[in-house]
Amino acid sequence: MADKKALIVWGGWDGHQPQQVAEIFNQALMEKGFSVEVADTLDAYTDEAKLKSLDLIVPVVTMSKISGDQLKPLLAAVKSGVGIAGCHGGMCDSFREATEYQFMTGGQWVAHPGNDGVEYTVEITDPDHFITQGSPPVFPVKSEQYYLHVDPVVRVLATTRFPIADGPHVKNGPVDMPTVWTKYYGEGRVFYTALGHHADIVAQPEVLALCTRGLLWAARAEALA
């Protein structure tokens, strides 16, 4: 198999440790034989032809704004078949005004009751998918628990149960929130996990395994697993 090519773009809110998370993804991809470019500017998205030559784009950018000149080539590349994969706010709390970006990713963060340090569990609901193979059926996380608005077409691979922390959602009763999913945007494969508030959560073995296999799936590189 020819070298797979990936672009990782990091930036935005420093609280999510974007540079450190980008380095974890970079290392995971390089260990699988990818050729990886890492950029710290959204202008990395402006060259549509270059983006379309990639196998995978990994956004690690939280709470920023994206211009049309940056967004349109990214959307076009994924529509054409380039994979996109990411985690937490680095993918699904990036550009709150860019609804087409949210349409592509399949969800948008809206709350994290209890903030950081909530102890919750993640349950694998689709153990037969490539991404979840080898994952424990349930594992604990102590971090932010993301409450998301989620596209109903996503294929949910794992969930987490709300409510745990108090908040205005409690009277609505129990709900299993998607926390790992896949979907398609045009021909492009989309992978997302809500896990990964800080680099240490991304590096947690159960999370890193899901992320690594999600990156490979999005890049159509399952054979490299």
Structural summary, described in words:
This protein has helices spanning 18-31, 48-52, 68-80, 88-92, 99-105, 199-202, 205-218; strands spanning 5-12, 35-39, 56-62, 83-87, 107-111, 118-124, 138-143, 147-150, 155-162, 175-185, 188-193. The chain has 225 residues and is α/β, with parallel strands linked by helices. It has a single domain, classed as 3-Layer(aba) Sandwich (Rossmann fold). It has a 9-stranded mixed β-sheet with strand order 2-1-3-4-11-10-9-6-7. It has a two-stranded antiparallel ribbon with strand order 5-8. The mean pLDDT is 97.
Name the strands of the widest sheet in spatial order: 2-1-3-4-11-10-9-6-7
The CATH architecture comes to 3-Layer(aba) Sandwich
- Envelope shape: globular
> Whole-number radius of gyration?
16 Å
CATH superfamily: Class I glutamine amidotransferase (GATase) domain
Tell me the name of the CATH class: Alpha Beta
Summarize this structure briefly.
It is globular and about 50 Å long.
Topology:
Layout: E1 5-12, H1 18-31, E2 35-39, H2 48-52, E3 56-62, H3 68-80, E4 83-87, H4 88-92, H5 99-105, E5 107-111, E6 118-124, E7 138-143, E8 147-150, E9 155-162, E10 175-185, E11 188-193, H6 199-202, H7 205-218
Parallel strand pairs: 1-2, 1-3, 3-4, 4-11
Antiparallel strand pairs: 5-8, 6-7, 6-9, 9-10, 10-11
Notable traits:
225 residues, alpha/beta, two-stranded antiparallel ribbon, globular, Rossmann fold, single chain, 9-stranded mixed β-sheet
